[in-house]
Write a structure and sequence with these properties.
The protein is of the alpha/beta class. It folds into two domains: 190 residues, no CATH class; 142 residues, no CATH class. The protein is built from 16 helices and five strands.
């Protein structure tokens, strides 16, 4: 990876008009050059794509999605079975059945009433035990057993690449609730409303296989990106224990965030403000990050610019999804999370053809 294989280069050659002496002067000029878009770095070679395999993945996507949703949810159901307690009364519609329909609904982007038709059309292929109405689907968005099932499926989607992801990218966004909303525009608006009315979310994405490894969202206005970041990163570390580098934009370039990354066994690559200092204030990871930038700008920025993959991940979700349909906060959170899990399943189906060395077809049930 970039943080291991790049040779040290002369910063004065690759940082443009960098002059002055001392590591702090160099770091500030590197940051300023990068923020103005004038940083002269080599970048990474574009990855090679097997277009024949890619075309095959596209043509088989729907059939593969249905099959993998059934396989993953059945595996999650088996893992959760021992934790379930039998309750008196009429048995509820199995959470596994609802989770399968919700995932297919998220993939096809249809409302609840149309999703009821999916029960009739795909019931046998999904392995559903019974038919149920759109009201059962609607209530599934705030049913705890369904959310536990989806959490387990999310963990399962990361297992084929567990230990293989070394660089993970973190980013935050706001999921719109109206087609008129644009998060970046509204967050910078001069009216002071900021990003109100959005479902705030933070995602951590692996840069090699482009699977979501961590996710947190909330409609609470106090739930800022920095508030959601710790839990999202810890979840990503649990799913990807090989995490060695965490990259992100300037909002994460603070000492508390660098300390957290270090505690989880990785090194941070966040672009600080132009007036950054080398004062430690008890956070060794902060100073190490800036000194690494000064030592080898090429390697540092080669890792840092992988953060665009998390931005791309959000773009894929929003382009496929559109605004959130639900109105209750808990259902909005489930709706956003469903899109993330469906994305991971869709991506695994692509990797089945593009990376055949991965053990994707096998999802052990126990």
């Amino acid at each position: 990876m970039g943080y291991m294989t790049h040779n040290a280069l002369n910063p004065a050659v690759h940082a443009g008009s960098v002059t002055g002496t001392g590591p702090l002067t160099l770091v500030r000029k590197l940051i300023d050059s990068a923020r103005r878009g004038e940083m002269d770095y080599e970048g990474r070679p574009p990855p090679k794509v097997d277009w024949t395999a890619y075309d095959l993945a596209q043509t088989r996507e729907l059939a593969d999605m249905v099959a993998m949703i059934r396989e993953l949810v059945d595996a999650a159901e088996t893992r959760l079975r021992e934790r379930r307690k039998r309750r008196p009364g009429r048995p509820a519609t199995p959470a596994a059945d609802i989770a399968k329909v919700l995932l297919l609904q998220a993939y096809l982007e249809v409302p609840n009433r149309v999703a009821q038709g999916l029960v009739l059309l795909f019931g046998e292929k999904l392995g559903l035990s019974r038919e149920f109405s759109y009201k059962t689907i609607e209530r599934g968005y705030d049913r705890r057993a369904v959310r536990r099932m989806l959490d387990e499926v999310f963990a399962l989607t990361n297992e084929p690449v567990r230990g293989l992801e070394r660089v993970l990218s973190v980013d935050g966004t706001g999921l719109p609730t109206s087609v008129k909303q644009n998060y970046e525009r509204d967050a910078r608006s001069k009216e002071g409303r900021g990003a109100l009315g959005y479902m705030r979310a933070v995602a951590v994405i692996g840069t090699s296989f482009k699977l979501f490894a961590g996710w947190r969202s909330t409609e609470d206005p106090a739930g800022s990106e920095l508030a959601l970041f710790p839990d999202a990163l810890r979840e990503a570390r649990a799913h990807q224990p090989g995490m060695a580098v965490v990259v992100g934009d300037g909002i994460y370039a603070g000492r508390p965030q660098c300390r957290l990354v270090g505690e989880l066994g990785a090194v941070p690559r966040f672009l600080p403000r132009r007036n950054a200092t080398l004062k430690r204030f008890g956070v060794r990871e902060w100073v190490d990050m800036l000194q690494a930038m000064a030592r080898d700008p090429q390697a540092w920025f080669a890792d840092f610019h992988l953060r665009s993959l998390s931005e791309t991940g959000f773009s894929v979700l929003k382009n496929r999804k559109g605004p959130l349909r639900k109105r209750l906060s808990v259902r909005k959170e489930t709706e956003g999370f469903l899109d993330v899990v469906a994305h991971n399943i869709r991506r695994l189906n692509q990797l089945r053809y593009l990376a055949p060395y991965l053990p994707i077809p096998a999802f052990p049930a126990g």
